Amino acid sequence: MQTMPSVKNRISADEWQTRIDLAACYRLVAQYGWDDLVFTHITAKIPNAENQFLINPYGMMFEEITASSLVKIDQNGTTLDTDNPYPINPAGFVIHSAIHAARADAKCVLHCHTPNGIAVSAQKNGLLPISQQSIFVLAGLAYHGYEGVALNDDEKPRLVRDLGDKNFLMLRNHGLLTVAETIADAFLFMYLFESTCMIQVRAQAGGGELTLVSQAILDGAKAQAKAVTRGLGGGLAWPGLLRKLDRADGSYKN
Prior knowledge:
7 strands, alpha+beta, 40% helix, 13% strand, single chain, L-fuculose-1-phosphate Aldolase, 254 residues
């Protein structure tokens, strides 16, 4: 396990809590098998800090990430943690910086390269309304066409345009992305997104004719989601997910 000296006593309480939650999110992504070695990213805005964000140390496995090992960067991807020896993935922050800059509600951006997500992103018709999970995703889903590895800043305006005000973005031939006000919400959204894609791939593999959910049900999905989570969104499941992590390994809080 890679270790880093604790930064808890050098930062605000709000930043420390954000670091704990973001490190937990990385560990959960690893537990659920959504990580792609070291090649995907989750970013979170630091509360009460102008254009300051946290991202994974490039090269560290998600299961190793701790609150103190997260790298603090600015809107341009410049490292603000001078004593953190890890670089960041420039391709990762091109996408994330564009969304953080365009959306005041984009406190957390979570991006994954899951096989199920990529498989559906490569399908011409995209995500299909064939499951209960899918109705919540389709209520806030956008698509962005593939432009190669995201290294060029000139892709940002098109990415922002395609995302609009949605919380779910399918990156064609690439993967899945969620945007949320909280880290807990971003994780819940990705859980629904990935589950929806997995169900679709399995249903299609069965070879039978698929039954589609009606448009009337799709239209009421947002209100149903709020009722199911008692208005708490990802916050309903988040404490239990943290307990799950603590039972396995609580070192993410270091």
